[in-house]
Design brief:
Blueprint lengths: L2 H14 L6 H12 L5 H19 L1 H15 L5 H26 L7 H21 L11 H11 L9 H11 L4 H30 L2 H29 L5 H19 L2
Helix pairs in contact: 1-2, 1-3, 1-10, 3-9, 3-10, 4-5, 5-7, 5-9, 6-8, 6-11, 7-8, 8-9, 9-10
Length: 266
């Protein structure tokens, strides 16, 4: 794969993964509008793994808290860190089950620009409505298991390209009254097991393929997306601590409307 395409994919993934605008949709759109060959799912997963490194670096305190909490729980002394780890696991189960079913029975049928356009527009408007109506009074420390499961169930909708995993989980968290930055924080924590599982499977596939060039491409893409994602996370969290999701909503409306115009009228 040309280095230029790897750089574009890494930049797109790094910027969009944790913003509520759908990274998967943007990765599908890149080859559509650049004329390049579709990079395939392995490179998609590689850039996701890069963003996993970024979120672990940014939320290292939460990650350490969960790991320590698991250690204490194994000694019969569960704490808040273990509780958070359980909530992340509970919220991940619906996505794992639905993702397996989708990969088995749907394949790539949803990777169309029309699906992306409607999902980008519709779920963007939903985020705006919920963000305006939702209270802003709760933090992750107030999360209940039922709330974690509700947010986890919302992730299933992210299997539709254009929905945005981060966008729909932030929408669900805002619906439950969580602060904007806390909604983003929990959404990013939820990304860790999902990306880790996908990255592990992709790594096994790369090893079995024996394709040295593909492996090199994947490593380069992952490294570039890590750096880009870290900057994007810092910028997003700084914004959400003092303002709303409106810029992301407006971007989604413009992108979705533009794609629909291109599909139906151009």
């Amino acid at each position: 794969m040309p280095v230029e395409q790897l750089i574009i994919l890494a930049l797109v993934q790094g910027i969009t993964e944790f913003l509520p605008i759908s990274s998967s949709a943007h990765l599908i759109l890149v080859p559509q509008f650049t004329g390049a060959v579709d990079q395939g799912p392995l490179i998609d997963v590689a850039v996701h793994v890069g963003t996993l490194g970024a979120v672990v670096l940014y939320l290292w305190r939460d990650v350490v808290q969960m790991l320590v909490g698991i250690g204490w729980a194994m000694r019969g002394r569960p704490d808040a860190g273990f509780r958070l780890a359980l909530q992340i696991v509970l919220a991940t189960i619906p996505l794992v089950a639905a993702g397996y079913a989708a990969s088995r029975y749907l394949g790539t049928e949803l990777r169309s620009i029309e699906v992306i356009a409607w999902a980008t527009l519709g779920f963007g408007i939903l985020l705006w409505v919920v963000d305006r109506a939702g209270m802003t009074v709760r933090r992750i420390e107030h999360m209940k298991y039922g709330g974690a499961l509700f947010i986890g169930l919302s992730q299933v909708l992210a299997l539709i390209p254009g929905t945005s995993r981060s966008g729909i989980t932030m929408t669900a968290a805002r619906f439950l009254g969580f602060e904007r930055s806390e909604a983003a924080r929990f959404s990013m924590l939820l990304a860790i097991p999902a990306i880790l599982a996908a990255g592990t499977l992709a790594g096994i596939d790369l090893y079995k393929s024996g394709d040295a060039q593909l492996t090199t491409d994947a490593v380069i893409a992952a490294g570039l997306s890590l750096i880009t994602a870290l900057f994007a996370i810092v910028a997003m969290m700084g914004w959400l601590k003092r303002a709303s999701f409106l810029p992301f909503v407006l971007y989604r409306i413009l992108l979705g409307s533009g794609l629909l115009f291109w599909i139906y009228l151009y």
